[in-house]
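Q: I have 409 residues here and want to know how they pack in 3D. Can you give me a structure?
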Amino acid sequence: MPTKQPTAPRSHSLEGRNIVLGITGSIAAYKAADLASKLVQEGATVDVVMTASALEFVGAAMFTGLTHRPVTTGLFGAQSEIAIDHVALAVRAHAFVVAPATANSIAKLALGLADDPVGATVLATTAPLIICPAMDAHMYENAATQRNIETLRRRGAHIVEPAEGRLASGLTGQGRMEEPARIVEHVRWVLGRGGDYAGKRVVVSAGGTQEPIDPVRHVANRSSGKMGYALAAAARDRGAEVTLIAGPVSLPDPVGIEMTHVRTALQMRDAVVAASKTADLLVMAAAVADFRPVDAAAEKIKRAGRETISLDLVKNPTIISEAQGPGLVKVAFAAETGDAARKAREKSHYSSAAFIVANDVSETGSGFGSDTNRVTFVYPGGADEPMPLLDKLAVAHKVLDRAQKHLRK
């Protein structure tokens, strides 16, 4: 029987945020149910506003059940907050998300029409507007639609570009509404602007590296990159301009983050050193290989006639020591097995770090690939600060909290 993963407090990145979700008449309206659910799971209070056309595809009762709040479906209904107070939803909104946004609704928003509850509430709000188009590819590519989108963009609307794929019409092209999980990332990114890391450049490394033995084999570790990706997302959500330098991982590129993909330790060294020259903070969360084969074979090494194989390894450079920049603050991660804090403190090559984040990857729930982590902050010349088991996004925010004290200096 598999070992049960320990539970840990889950961070809610949209806690205390009021999100208005406007739904218009598209077959993609079914995705809005998943989006509403995900926003609620992130801690947001979600108020749903639906057009009459949207009600032809999905029912209001579903959204009441998902959000535990009344759904506005008209301008004059007895339950409509717009009827009671024209700007009730608009005033308390921290963000207004229109998903799906049809070609017709985008045109009406561009013209400033207010003949349905979505358009009326958009006109009444000063909150950031996030528009998620969904329509047939030819409709999306049409010059009129593109002109309307550009008009909204010039007014400050954040456009979540639709994805390419098979559409309801049977055609293939750009017009599929972006997936709800990605839209939530856009919401977090937009709401994070002006946060306590606004104006800061943060560089994060993530994942392991692969050191080639021959064209088909390599030396690697089991790092998933989840901790580094959580750090990058947390910094973005707090307003930072983020560069994420990632080794080979199976994670999608985060929204709103500059990505650099590398494979080897030397490639990661070059990318981190270059990005750090203009950065305020470097967080080395990558599990970089300590050694690499001296020479990689040009062709696949055959097993025939061999009982053993020997590799000559050479030490990889210490990336955090080579990264330099005016006022650059460095934070190191140390993945150890057993007594992680003590072993991290003994690593002299971390001497340039403001502090070290040590974790025991042999501990259940804190190893490679897990969604949680138990870390200890190790301070030069100071006492260790152990943390409880937390999800990795919560750990990321605690790292940024502590790094910020050094940035202020």
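Q: Anything worth noting?
A: The chain has a mean pLDDT of 91. The CA atoms of residues 345 and 389 lie 21 Å apart.
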